Amino acid sequence: MSPLNLEFWKRASRGLAEAFAANETRLCEYDGAIGDGDHGTSMLRGFTEARESLESNPPGDVGELFGRIGETFLESVGGVTGVVFGTLFTAAGEPAAGRNAVDARDLHGMLASGLAAVVKRGGVKEGDKSMVDALAPAVTALAAAAGEDKDPATALALAGRAATGGMEATRGMVARVGRARYQGEKAVGHVDAGAASVALILETLAAEALKEKPGA
User: Fold this and answer.
1) Which pLDDT tens digit goes with each residue over 8-21?
2) Which of 32, 63, 168, 194 is at 20 to 30 A from 99, Cα to Cα?
3) Which residues contact 182 (CB under 8 A, 6 or more apart)?
4) What number of helices (H) and strands (E) belong to the chain?
5) What is the pLDDT of residues 61-85, one digit of tens each?
6) What's the mean pLDDT in 165-176?
7) Nearest to 35 by CA among 119, 130, 111
8) Strand bridging mode 4-5 / 101-102
9) Contact of 131 with 197, CB cutoff 8 Å
10) Domains recognised in the chain with CATH numbers
């Protein structure tokens, strides 16, 4: 399978807006259990406005596309969600600057860059019950996929599966960051909404990429 080109990422950005529209209520429910309950709405706003921006002024390369999504979250969403997801996409776009297509190795570099930026900006680590608990396993899965020379669709599918596993693991965690940290033991049993959004992003990208595979 060929690397995922700029046209794919434009289609995928539309797919993300649709996926978050379909999952807005679920994500708000996750957030409402231990936070302020607006996470799904914030994510939907970010991807909807990013899609509109990308369609009205098409990006010139993959790095610019990711950077524009990050910029939209930082400028339009606000709050912690806007900052951390804006940071994720902005940093993920940097290794892809000037690139018109990316393969599994590139995808690993992009997501690893995003993870490092989120960890640095938020001062979070695995086990804190945050988006990092989904991001870190996804980066590990992409590293393994790249090392085995997997095609990018398969690599994204493996990353999505790992992120979903990381999301589910947050149910058993006591939150150490964000509003949820004030819940103490009451946060146990609930999924972190940020981790759920990371899993949804990667699962959606994987589904879009699998459509590109021959015979799909």
Assistant:
1) 999 999 999 999 99
2) 194
3) none
4) 8, 2
5) 999 999 999 999 999 998 999 999 9
6) 90
7) 130
8) antiparallel
9) yes
10) 4-210 (1.25.40.340)
